Amino acid sequence: MKSDTPKVSPAPTPSLWARPAASSVHGSGLYATTPIPQNTRVIEYVGERITKKESDRRDTARLKRQDEGDDGCVYVFEINQRYDIDGDVSWNTARLINHSCEPNCETENTRGHIWITAVRDIQEGEELNYDYGFDWSVWEDHPCRCGAPSCVGYIVKKGQRWRVRRVLEQRAKK
Hints:
Radius of gyration: 17 Å
Structural class: alpha+beta
Number of helices: 2
Largest sheet: 3 strands, antiparallel
Helix content: 10-25%
């Protein structure tokens, strides 16, 4: 039996520690409303739980939108070998957290829940960020705007940034 009741989205995920506001990095961001101690779970990254096959389908559609001029933002987190979380939903406040090559937070997968956790003490008013950790194989698809001193200009996991530097140096010599 089909229900005539409209589907209601959950309320935005709350955080006692942060609030959304415009970001100088990209679009909107999350900012500390009070000092946040190191190791604090700031907010959970939530969304629709999807299979890997569905995740691949959505990524193909995202890339097509990007080719057509859309921003191509990625909101999918791997939970395990079978499932991902697609955080591109209105109630996922954590989706507003931007990347930084020198982050003040990190992601933590605890039994299928993705938490954004402070890696150091964070001051009130500071924008929250974490390393998106994109793989080397797609580095050119993800320009970085974080402005950190160690930024290579692309969003790539820390251990692979040397590769980007090497390619950029080789291109500059040509």
